[in-house]
């Protein structure tokens, strides 16, 4: 009897041990990457399918990479910004092979802007004489544009576009191995790849694990859509030099004009209780042209008023093996120059070209060191757009009345001069001449012009004081902007070792390709 009880106990214990071993093995197998995933040195995960994510997915897919894109919401986005693509951005679309994405969405060509102040207008055109006739800015619905790029990316057999919410990065010994996400059905999933590129937008939930963000909110954008009305000049946006901050109008379809009203500060009037409508009718409407005022009031009465924070986020990455941060998750600027999409497309070109010579991405530490050059090579265009937006908006709003009003009049008169005087700055803001030194080359002569104008007709003590305040404001504006972008990275990138790591490999690859 005792022996049979002992034997039964051994059998039960063995069965329990076997079940426990089987459970542990299956659990470990579920957590670990499959053999195909673990050895796929060519796979890349992209978190987010906005402008940056969709463009990069298509570019990498065309290069033969296996790309897994995970986007929180694959429905058409509804945004009130990201609706103007500068001419330089269109050139980047051509480099990526995505220029047809502005077709079939009722996009409108933009050849420049009309500046309006106190009933007077002056035209500022993009310097496009050296480019093909199709090169111009574009105004469109942001969501339509993004959907077109997503369709292009998903049409490639090696690109998988999936709806899901990425909850965290999977790390092992400090190296990012992939992501943990919840799919459309709410099921927990994991995906593995030697490189994960995070571009999940302005409100990224992964940003803090890959950079040191310093988020500033200088103002809010208030968006309206005006219907069946015309701007002062066809294929030109309208920039109203209003008080206390600017108002922009631009076409987003053949029948719709977007109006963006900038409201400085951390708070805006409430939309729900009617304060916003009252503010727009009493403070903004009297400052816009009579041709648009009726349509503006009608748009307010329809009630479709939307607001959005204008965020400024300088580039401050933490190089992390196995991962890279880009797009609005990495870097943002005020939307005053409409350069955000151009920066995203330019970054996609830079990263595609950096990855092209690499067949194996599995050496995470070496890849991380190599990809540090991405943050240097993106600087020429990004720093011009970031700096230009900050300078333009800060100059416009920094000085209080009455100096601020006088400054706006001087800026308007300066733009009215036209010709080569403004072609350089306009080319820079249109991303056609992205050289960081341009920020200094044009800013200080303009500041000197404003200084002299403030002294006219004669240098009274009051005018001397106002001019001195302007010089001080100019110094306070420009140098913190350059510092936030990085003095060496922006103005002297060739002094940084990371600049040469990529250059040597890319030159070698180009030589092999030529042979």
Report on the architecture of this protein:
It is a single chain. This protein has 515 residues and is of the alpha/beta class. The protein contains 16 helices and 17 strands. It is globular and about 70 Å long.
Brief digest:
The chain is of the alpha/beta class and 515 residues long. It has helices spanning 2-31, 35-39, 51-62, 87-96, 142-154, 275-284, 290-302, 340-355, 364-377, 379-398, 403-417, 420-429, 437-455, 461-485, 487-491, 498-514; strands spanning 43-47, 66-71, 84-85, 108-110, 112-117, 120-125, 137-139, 159-172, 175-183, 188-192, 195-198, 216-227, 237-240, 247-251, 256-264, 306-312, 323-325. A hairpin with a 2-residue loop joins β5 and β6 (120-125).
Number of helices: 16
State the CATH class of the largest domain. Answer: Alpha Beta
Largest sheet: 7 strands, mixed
The structural domain count equals: 4
Overall 3D shape: globular
Q: What value does the average pLDDT take?
A: 85
* Counted beta strands: 17
Side by side, the strands of the main sheet go 10-9-8-2-1-11-17
Kindly report how far apart the N and C termini lie: 86 Å
Assign the CATH architecture of the largest domain.
3-Layer(bba) Sandwich
The CATH superfamily of the largest domain is known as: FAD/NAD(P)-binding domain
Q: Which percent bin holds the helix content?
A: 40-55%
CATH topology of the largest domain: FAD/NAD(P)-binding domain
- Our Rg estimate from Cα atoms comes to 27 Å
Structural class per helix/strand content?
alpha/beta
Strand content: 15-25%
Unreliable spans are: 24-39, 507-515
């Amino acid at each position: 009897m005792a022996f049979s009880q002992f034997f039964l106990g051994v059998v039960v214990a063995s069965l329990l041990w076997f079940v426990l071993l089987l459970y542990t093995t299956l659990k470990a197998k579920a957590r670990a990457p499959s053999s195909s995933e673990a050895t796929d040195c060519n796979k890349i995960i992209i978190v987010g399918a906005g402008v940056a994510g969709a463009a990069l997915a298509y570019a990498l897919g065309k290069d033969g990479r296996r790309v897994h894109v995970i986007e929180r919401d694959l429905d058409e986005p509804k945004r009130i910004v990201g609706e103007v693509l500068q001419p330089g951005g269109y050139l980047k679309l051509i480099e990526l092979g995505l220029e047809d994405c502005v077709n079939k969405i009722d996009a409108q060509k933009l050849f420049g802007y009309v500046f309006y102040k106190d009933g007077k207008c002056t035209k500022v055109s993009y310097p496009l004489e050296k480019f093909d006739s199709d090169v111009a800015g574009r105004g469109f619905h942001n969501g339509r544009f993004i959907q077109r790029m997503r369709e292009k990316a998903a049409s490639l057999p090696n690109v998988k576009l999936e709806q899901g919410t990425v909850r965290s990065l999977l790390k092992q010994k400090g190296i990012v191995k992939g992501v943990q996400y919840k799919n459309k059905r709410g099921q927990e999933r994991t995906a593995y790849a030697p490189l994960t590129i995070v571009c999940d937008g302005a409100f990224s939930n992964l940003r803090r694990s890959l950079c040191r963000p310093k988020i500033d909110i200088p103002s809010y954008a208030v968006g309206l859509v005006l219907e069946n009305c015309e701007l002062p000049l066809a294929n030109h946006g309208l920039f109203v030099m209003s008080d206390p901050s600017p108002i922009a109008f631009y076409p987003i379809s053949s029948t719709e004009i977007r109006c963006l009203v900038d409201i400085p500060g951390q708070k805006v009037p409430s939309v729900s209780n009617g304060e916003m409508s009252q503010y727009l009718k009493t403070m903004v409407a009297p400052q816009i042209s009579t041709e648009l005022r009726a349509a503006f009031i009608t748009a307010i009465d329809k009630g479709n008023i939307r607001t959005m924070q204008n965020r400024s986020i300088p580039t401050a990455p933490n190089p992390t093996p196995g991962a890279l941060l880009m797009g609005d998750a990495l870097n943002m600027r005020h939307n005053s120059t409409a350069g955000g999409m151009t920066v995203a497309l330019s970054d996609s070109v830079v990263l595609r070209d950096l990855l092209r010579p690499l067949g194996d991405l599995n050496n995470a530490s070496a890849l991380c060191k190599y990809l540090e050059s991405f943050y240097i090579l993106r600087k020429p265009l990004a720093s011009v757009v970031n700096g230009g937006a900050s300078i333009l908006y800060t100059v416009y709003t920094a000085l209080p009345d009455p100096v601020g009003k006088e400054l706006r009049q001087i800026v308007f008169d300066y733009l009215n001069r036209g010709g080569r005087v403004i072609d350089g700055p306009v080319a820079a803001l249109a991303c056609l001449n992205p050289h960081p030194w341009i920020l200094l080359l044009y800013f200080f002569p303009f500041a000197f012009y404003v200084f002299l104008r403030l002294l006219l007709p004669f240098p009274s003590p009051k005018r001397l004081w106002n001019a001195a305040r302007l010089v001080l404001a100019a110094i306070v504006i420009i140098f913190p902007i350059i510092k936030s972008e990085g003095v060496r990275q922006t103005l002297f990138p060739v002094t940084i070792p990371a600049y040469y790591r990529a250059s040597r490999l890319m030159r070698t690859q180009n030589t092999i390709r030529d042979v």
